[in-house]
Design goal:
Elements lengths: L3 E6 L3 H10 L5 E7 L3 H11 L3 E3 L2 H5 L6 E4 L6 H10 L3 E5 L6 H13 L4 E4 L6 H11 L6 E9 L19 H17 L4 E8 L5 E9 L5 E7 L8 E5 L2 E5 L8 E6 L5 E4 L7 H13 L10 H18 L7
Parallel strand pairs: 1-2, 1-4, 2-3, 4-5, 5-6, 7-10
Antiparallel strand pairs: 7-11, 8-9, 9-10, 11-12, 12-13, 13-14
Helix pairs in contact: 1-8, 4-5, 5-9, 7-9
Length: 326
């Protein structure tokens, strides 16, 4: 595989995990990192073995020695930061949620298309081998027609009004932080729902601290999802088909084990271990697409990114949750 020179924009927590992941992605080199602070960029580069460091995002976006940039800032900055990198001529991998809302997502995608550049939402779960295998089994009809999806992603964080999870200015709320995982799974398996209904508990900062979500499809298929940042939930996914069930065990969003139960057959528990910390697989997908000259990934296509954002807009509209500037 050809070498891809990576840049990381924003030197926070998930950026560190991605830098570690790149070490298990053959052909990936961490060429440069960019931070709003030159000292922070230098320290991050030293810790993670980046060749160069930049004291501004603009400087990283225009570094000619970088091919692809991973955008790891809080969600409200994803739109501007991704567009900055695209305008610097880079392929872009943007953290989930792709943006705050559908309009911002469409802006970023339009910029990539105008410039003929690769762009993908970093929804890392989709690329993890056990999840690829679940999807493959479903596509080959292992459990018949999918009738229902049940999935949750909730955890209990300490309440801190200034943190990314609770501050509306940083895109706080469970839906955008982790609700996007069960939504992404459902959109991958079932496509576009025609009914979206949610109930949310809105906390004192005005963002959703927990929510339940129902999605309905015209042919009767249903999804029952939940999300939280103040409640621990089982973090399991169950995909029920006409001829069997797949249960992806906790933590289903970073899966290694699932159980396949088929009518008239022995139940099988299948384990497919991850290599590296899991962030390597999304990087490998980007590099594969670049080598094949693709502008988007078949596994995480732009249309599904837009659909996930549309569903989240619909839910927030039902709950009256708005972010500054909306
Ligand atoms: N895929 C996953 O499993 C996963 C897990 C966690 C988070 N995420 C996503 O990754 C993104 C970042 O999350 P994180 O947990 O890494 O956040 P974080 O630790 O707070 O880091 C975000 C970084 O963004 C930069 N930044 C730019 N403007 C900022 C502002 N106004 N306030 C705070 N930081 C700002 C900062 O980097 P500099 O100071 O270096 O400029 C900061 O270190 C979020 O969109 C989140 O949804 C994904």
């Amino acid at each position: 595989m050809k070498t891809t020179r990576w840049g990381i924009l924003g030197c926070g927590r998930i950026a560190a995990s991605f830098a570690t992941g790149l070490k298990s992605a053959p052909g990936a080199v961490l060429a440069a990192v960019g931070s709003r602070s030159a000292d922070k960029a230098e320290a991050f580069a030293k810790e993670h073995g980046a060749e160069r460091h930049h004291g501004s995002y603009e400087s990283l976006a225009n570094d000619p020695e970088v091919d692809a940039i991973y955008v790891a800032t809080p969600h409200p900055m994803h739109e501007a930061d991704s567009i900055l990198c695209l305008k610097g001529g880079k392929a872009v991998l943007t953290e989930k949620p792709f943006t705050i809302n559908r309009i911002q997502a469409a802006n970023v995608i339009a910029t990539a298309r105008e410039r003929n550049l690769f762009l993908m939402e970093a929804h890392w779960s989709r690329f993890i081998p056990a999840m690829r295998e679940v999807h493959r089994l479903i596509l080959e009809g292992a459990i018949g027609d999918i009738r229902m999806v049940q999935a949750d992603f909730g955890f209990r964080a300490d309440f801190n009004p200034d943190s990314r999870l609770f501050d509306p200015a940083l895109g706080g709320g469970a839906l955008l932080d982790v609700g996007c995982y069960p939504l992404s799974l459902t959109v991958m398996l079932l496509g576009t729902p025609n009914v979206v209904i949610g109930l949310a508990d809105i906390g004192v900062t005005g963002v959703d601290e927990q929510a339940t979500i129902n999605l309905g499809y015209s042919d009767g298929r249903l999804a029952l999802l939940s999300t939280a940042v103040r409640t621990n939930t089982p973090q399991e996914a169950v995909i029920a088909g006409s001829e069997g069930t797949i249960r992806i065990h906790n933590p289903w969003w970073k899966p290694s084990t699932f159980t396949l139960s088929r009518s008239g057959k022995d139940t099988e528990t299948i384990t497919i271990p991850m290599e590296g910390n899991g962030f390597n697989y999304e990087a490998i997908e980007v590099m594969k697409c670049l080598e094949e000259g693709k502008l988007e990934s078949d596994i995480m296509p732009h249309a599904q990114t837009i659909e996930i954002m549309r569903i989240m807009d619909t839910l927030r509209n039902q709950w009256g949750v708005k972010y500054p500037g909306e």
